[in-house]
Amino acid sequence: MKKKIFIETYGCQMNVYDSELVKTILAEKEYLLVPEESMANIVMLNTCTVRENADRKVLNRVHQIKNSRHQKETILVGILGCMATNFKTKLLEDPKLKIDFIAGPDSYKQLPQLIENAWEHGDKSFDVTLSEFETYSDITPTRKDGINAWLAIMRGCNNFCTFCVVPYTRGRERSRDPYNIVQEIKHLVSEGFSQVTLLGQNVNSYQYDGIDFTDLMRMISDIDGVKRIRYTSPHPKDFPEKLLQLMSEKPAICKQLHMPLQAGNSRVLDKMNRTYTKEEFLALIDLTRHYMPTANISTDIIVGFPTETDQEFEDTIDVIKKVEFDSAFIFKYSERPNTRAAKKFPDDVSEEVKTKRIMRLNDIQNEISLRKKNTQIGQTQTVLVEALYTKRSTDDIQTRNDANQIVILPKVDPPFDINIGDYINVKITGATRNSLKAMFISV
Ligand code: SAH
Ligand code: SF4
Ligand code: F3S
Q: Which of 117, 49, 46 is nearest to 78 (CA)?
């Protein structure tokens, strides 16, 4: 009997990518991948542990799976990803959870063995070793998208921002061979992908035998057939001027950047170990806009980091008003086990204050985001067709612009020959919080 496998993915894009790697690893061993949890006898949750609510979501889900299924049939539940390395065997030892195996982000090649041990012998098996070398460069993920190819160019993080658990769950930085990356992208182009998004926990710290992130971006932008290049997530400390200049010069590199601010106050930034001040961050934004005046810039912000005062929080507001980010992901500080902040700084900003701060920031940012979207009305843009319908309507087409924003347009009458993956020209006619509206101009 083939073992039927289902993988459910939580957390960031790296986990989505890793789940595709796991599918390739298991497909080779003749496991059957099934489309629904209820059809599987081995369920794996590829987990995130970046904030406490991420953990809670997964633990609730484990209970739900076990309670709904376990009495009648054999079912194994495995935990992959960042919770595996963060909690290690504690997960297996919890009698209420009844987890059967765990594998950390660098142990996926061991999965067939781990599953076998659990299945054949009932062993609680685990491998949460972090590697200094594993980049999975020999494994091609099972990509299903067909338009955008995600591609991990580096893994791990050496930055140790004091609030963040990622360096502990993902281990040290290591980069993949650039020639191997270029080969894979050429192959992807031959399969019809025209957009590639480079991934890494700290993507612009890429470094391989003297080749840095700017060099790699240049190599990729010179590949025939690659029309759009994006990357995520970068760190503000690794934005040399030559990278911004290259981005401005190469049409294939999208004029879109994620610049995680985290906090606007320099004392708080220092306590976070972000290695830049408020002024340095603002100067980086100015330099970015010097090279790319219309660049779409998004950010991440944490409110209520230990000891952050009301006055210091005003600096975060000051920065978001000055920069006018196109969008922002705003989080309440969540204390994570093992991090430097958890060891050194008590979580002393109350839940009530965190809530007040996040609501205030969201209000200000939502207003800015919508205002900036509105300024695009009337512009002609080239968009990439992603779907011939939207979540809401079969009469609309979903596309994406260079700035990574969703652009919705009605199907024209009479219908023309348009396909997923096509680039078309549209005129922006409206804006909402989540998307832009447009009308078709030409192919
Ligand atoms: N590698 C990415 C970050 C991954 S975590 C990067 O450096 O940008 C994504 C975001 O989660 C971070 O940018 C931060 O804003 C948020 N985050 C991380 N740890 C957190 C914590 N302990 N509490 C609240 N938010 C956190
Ligand atoms: Fe976490 Fe900082 Fe590394 Fe990003 S750069 S993954 S926030 S430690
Ligand atoms: Fe979460 Fe791990 Fe990604 S903690 S954000 S899944 S790197």
A: 46
